Amino acid sequence: MKKKLAGLFVIVVLALVGLAIRITVINASEGEQYSKQVLTRSQQQYGSTTIPFRRGDILDANGTVLATSEKVYNLILDCKVANDKETYREPTVRALVDILGQDEITVTGLLDGEETKSSQYQVLARGLTIKEKKAFEEYLEGTEEDPLTATEAGERALIKGIWFEETYERTYPLNSVACDVLGFTYDKNEAAWGLEGYYNSVLNGVDGRKFGYFNDNSEVEQMIIQPVDGNTIVTTIDANIQQIVEKYIAQLNEELSNGPYGNEGAQNIGVIVMDPNNGEVLAMGSNNPYDLNNPRDLSAFYTEEEIAALSEEKKLEILNGIWKNYCISESFEPGSTVKPVVMAAALEDGVLDGSEEYNCQGVLNVSGTPIKCNNTEGHGVLTLSDVIKHSCNVGMMEIADKMGVEEFIKYQDVFNFGLKTGIDLSGEASGILHTEDTMSTVELATGSFGQGFTCTMIQEAAAVCSVINGGYYYQPHLVSKILDSDGSVVKNIEPTLMKQTVSSEVSALIRSYMETVVQENGTGVNAKVDGYSMGGKTGTAQKIPRGNGKYLLSFVGYVPADNPEVLIYVVVDEPNAENQEQGKYPQGLAKNILTDILPYMNVFMDEEQSGTGDTSDPADTVNGLADVNVPEPVDTEDPVEGGNRLESEGLTNEEAGIEE
């Protein structure tokens, strides 16, 4: 028995020695290859992978989320692992099809394709939710309520090569609300439009990394560098005010859509609501809203047949037009809304003392060029207040003549016309002005009532704010603070006072003049909100070429009259109506918006209500807007018969002698 045990022991020892020798040979000749295989199969969990950062949110002034980034998952197929054994393939494909809803032909095509069968990274789907990921994990492992049987566990252990890559998807909970202001991301965390584009670097963070490796003891270890999430920006936009603005823009657009010029209510409709005392923009909208979650969708604007017929270049051109923010990117001749600014400049310059009177005969001869007033019969004798109330062109031309070309251009610069305001949005335009060399007495005259130069809506709104708030020009802005990913304040963005344009005395005088505009017989009576004192100014600019019947209508107003808390500026460019110069369109839009937002903003009534809530006769209502029978100024009713350099078509700015 002892001999037998000794012999068995020798055999076992020899076997172990042989095995050790064989392992040594394998390790020496093929060890590196096997190590690579082990690391390859482990790379999805333990390789070097990116941990994406989370882009910061965009919030409204009340904390409402306007833009956010939600964690989602990309479904990845490692074809090399799935093809490693024949037993892996069928359960892996079945899981992808039955549980994750993938197309079987697509999956098998990737597993069999010459270029993909050895690939370790094939994206099958993007943007899967945590719910979808969890459903797959429960399929693999079962749950406490529904555990796997031994057979099921064995089958599902053969599912290989499927993993989920973490990423983030930008979403906009309110869809199209404030689309002109927000913009959108087009390539993960890159953007070019709106706040998303302007604050791109602030909103973005830094990716982290996860490094996995095997130590000397063949144990898996990893090192993680955590990502740095992007900062959140808090805007001055109030989502409630913004939605009110967009509601009434859509209503006006719908009411005008059955006119003679197609289905659009107007070529452009723009609205800006601001706090005149600090430059904060509370709302900004236009008549071409688009879904921020699907910004390339043209179905709201064209039929399927029309979209199919568009070339890619034409689609891009249309999309750029839709994405553009009309309130900051489009310049136009502002018309008579600029008159209070010009008069304030003349008072500040000292060429007026407030006691002047002008006798309007309906036309003024300027260097041999007859320039008409909006009332061709003439207004008669007018005070400065009357000039603003009745929007008299003759009175304004005589005021500009007193100022002279040099002072007029100087004050255009003071009020920031021809220059970008610096608002924190991408794509701002600057407008076109005359220089001293190109401005003759005719251009000076027409410039006094907002013709012969161009500006943007935000330029005009900011200039008027300074005229009515005591003379202080604040840079328009949309962001009030920046927060880190934990919600702590990184930076408070205080209002930027850029200059003083006029004295407080001049500002008070202009406010008193503008208050008459919305009173009885004033050109802006349609905009008056019952129960509130307010001021305003109308504008009706005849577009180039003059005499074509195309008008840009506008109204700028503020509440209350003596101590403005909110300013609104409305532009309706080429309303779809037979008679385009009816000022009721922008006035009615302004009135509707103010009627809703003033109580919300806790701006209290300071006048006795009329009792009807409306000063117009219902029988005089057209398109849902009061049609009060008052003479609305046609600021540019062919006022210049030749002589205005901006009328020349086909000329470059340089050829026309215009400085941009």
Quick take:
This protein has 660 residues and is an alpha+beta fold.
Could you list some keywords that capture this structure?
elongated, alpha+beta, 27 strands, 660 residues, 5-stranded antiparallel beta sheet
Q: If you had to describe this structure to a student in words, what would you say it looks like?
A:
With 660 residues, the protein is an alpha+beta fold. 35% of the residues lie in helices and 21% in strands. The chain is built from 20 helices and 27 strands. The strands form nine sheets. Strands 2, 3, 4, 5, 10, 19 and 20 form a seven-stranded mixed β-sheet that branches. A five-stranded antiparallel β-sheet has the order 12-11-24-23-22, with helices on both faces. A three-stranded antiparallel β-sheet has the order 1-8-9.
Q: Give the low-pLDDT segments.
A: 41-45, 613-660
Determine the mean pLDDT: 88
Q: Based on the structure, what is the oligomeric state of the protein chains?
A: single chain
Number of DSSP helical runs: 20
Blueprint (SSEs and pairs):
Blueprint: H1 2-46, E1 49-51, E2 58-59, E3 65-77, H2 79-82, H3 86-98, H4 104-112, E4 122-128, H5 130-141, H6 150-156, E5 162-171, H7 179-182, E6 185-187, E7 190-191, H8 194-198, H9 200-203, E8 208-214, E9 220-225, E10 232-235, H10 239-255, E11 266-274, E12 281-286, H11 304-309, H12 312-323, H13 326-329, H14 339-349, E13 357-360, E14 363-366, E15 369-372, E16 380-383, H15 384-390, H16 393-414, E17 433-434, H17 441-447, H18 457-468, E18 472-474, E19 479-483, E20 489-492, E21 497-500, H19 504-517, E22 535-542, E23 551-559, E24 566-575, H20 584-600, E25 621-622, E26 625-626, E27 658-659
Parallel strand pairs: 2-10
Antiparallel strand pairs: 1-8, 2-3, 3-4, 3-5, 6-7, 8-9, 10-19, 11-12, 11-24, 13-16, 14-15, 17-27, 18-21, 19-20, 22-23, 23-24, 25-26
Helix pairs in contact: 10-20, 14-16, 14-19, 15-19, 16-17
